[in-house]
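ugh ok so i messed up the first submission bc i forgot one of the chains. this is the corrected input, ALL of the components this time, i swear. 428 residues overall. if the numbers dont match what u have on ur side tell me asap before i send this to the collaborators (the ones from the other lab, u know who)
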Amino acid sequence: MRTLIKRSALSAHAALLATAALACMTCTSAASAHAVVGDRVFPATMTVDDPGVGDEFDAQFGHIKAPTDDGDAMNVNTVSYEWDKLITRNLAFSIAGDYVSQNAPNGNSAKGWDNITLGVKYLVYANAAHEFMASVGLESEIGGTGAKSIGDSFSTFTPTAYFGKGFGDLPASLGYLRPFAITGEIGPNITTASSDQGPNSLDWGLTLQYSIPYLQNQVKDLGLPQPFSNLIPVVEFPMNTCTAGACSGHTTGTINPGLIWINRYGQLGVEAQIPVNRATGNHVGVLFQAHLFFDDIFPNSLGKPLF
Amino acid sequence: MNLKTIARAAAAAIIVGTCQLAHAHAYPTHRAPSAGDTVPTSQKDVAIDFDDALEPAFSSIAVTDAQGRSVTSGKAEVDASNKKHMSVGLNPLTPGVYTVSWVAVADDGHRTQGHYTFTVK
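and heres the new structure output, hopefully the right one now
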């Protein structure tokens, strides 16, 4: 499971909150599930969660420059961890944490752990023939559990819906389009704070993927060597729209083109983070990922459902 | 990012890249014929090599013609001396497009599947 960018605000504390939100874009409390439906494997995308549930672990490092109150650019580095555990075959629990380091040119630097985020996620529907999956979940960022300089004092609850659709059911005449897939998620961030301190917002995002393994296994074996045969080019669109307070209606987010290299035990990923507007920032960031599929590495212990 | 974090990330990357010890989902490493191949009418079988040992009782290969009729001469078999190799014999084929549908259940019970087509000329 992954926490999307949390929220941005344009109130009196707007810049600092905006940088915190931008930091959360890079922190992206991580893991996405090892989601398999029919012939399709949805990879663990880095900022927009995939629609599956699984036993896995994700680590990410993100770097981006975020705007400060004074209009300077502040370096924000974030290291994120998330562990997902299957309770049953369709129900997973997660715990995530991020370590954020903000270095501003004129002071106002801060570093420390962000609040802990707990999650539950349930796979409600899967259709193998049409490579479609849908899940629902709830993520809870527990206020006050992080460093005072980084984490919010209030809590945020995000009920979320996830979906994924592979295009393997396209006709043979469109064979080279069959490796495409899209995934998405949407969920309102409901905070326990007042609207000017921590406005409610809506997290939403999409990914567009083209799976080279799918191409070679299901469509046409081009004889591509490693590492190309295991690559999945992807573009992610993690977005956040403020829904209350002075920033109501404003959207921030990034466009993240990247590559995921996947094998049976896990994956490695890298993405650029391109701000979609000036409110998000002016500098391109970068995300790196290392992700482990515990159901494949430890199938008889850590990687199997509790029940 | 401190050295401990870098070390943990590197360890994860190494596990992803090199771990060959654990049983896991079984995926094909080699197929004959491959997806999108064109083969002569003398093609005798479909053989798939996987990256993990298979459970013979639950693994299978089905081959059908454009009308959905089976063209296999028997049940798919997992090689007793190499449980990562599964094959099925084919009846004499006529020119056309054929669909291979495989199901692989690894020793640990994980199930994977796939479909692809090849052409006989």
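quick check: Chain A is about 10% helix and 50% strand. that seems consistent at least. Residues 14-27 of chain A form the longest helix (14 residues).
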